[in-house]
Amino acid sequence: MGSSGLSQSNFKITEAEINEEVGNIPREELQQIREVFEYIDKDGSNTISLEELEAIFDCLPQKLSKYEVTRMFNMLDDDNDGTIVSLPPPPAPPPPAIA
Questions:
Q1: What's the predicted TM-score (pTM) here?
Q2: pLDDT at 71 over 80
Q3: Fewer Cβ atoms within 10 Å of its own Cβ: the N or the C terminal residue of the chain?
Q4: Which domain holds residue 78?
Q5: End-to-end CA distance of the chain
């Protein structure tokens, strides 16, 4: 991987790390992220396949090679099952205040 000392495992994140980070994202932003994820997830499987990711990059003006998209996908596919899993559902809104 060159002399940088970085490997693909340097880019892997655990589910616990995702949940911790998600907890720090405001609810409105998390909903926006979920909407983008659902837009990319064309088959509604709650995962993003390599083909779905490639389709999104094909729509952008700055083209990435198949190799670049595949490398990015492989960094995000933390369990090597061929999919990128969704974020956890957003937390429920707080109950209304009782006056």
A1: 0.60
A2: yes
A3: C
A4: 8-85
A5: 61
